[in-house]
Each structure stands twice: as structure tokens, then as C-alpha cells.
Predict the 3D structure of the following.
Amino acid sequence: AAAAVDSAFVEAVARAVLSLPDDQRVVFVLSCQEGLSYSEIADVVGCPVGTVASRKRLAVREDGEVAMVGE
């Protein structure tokens, strides 16, 4: 049963990440999966650090979960 719950959770997170707008998804993945700093992400995507921070904030809800489009 635990494996089914874990699998369902992983699938839900994957759907949430895939539902993000491209600019937010790229920042989220580079930050959370790749471990890049905001400064490093800014260099990669070619935008200011403040924009990276805004995109990450938009991608992550206040409760720490990935925001889903349409919520």
C-alpha cells in the first residue's frame, strides 16, 4: 500500500510540475532538481535574479506545494 501511495504522490507532483508555465517550470526544475542557485539559474535562462525568484515563488504555493494551473 505504501508503494501505491508513493507512486500516486510522485505522479501528482509530476503532473503539477508539468502543468506549470514553461518559464516557471524551468526555474523550478533547475532549483529543486538540479540544485542551482538563483544566480546560476539567472545566468542559464538569461534573466535577472529577481525574475528567477518571482518565477519560483509563483511555481510554489505558500504551503510549499507545487502550484497547479487553474487552482
Notes: The chain has a mean pLDDT of 86. The helical segments are 2-19, 22-33, 38-45, 49-59.
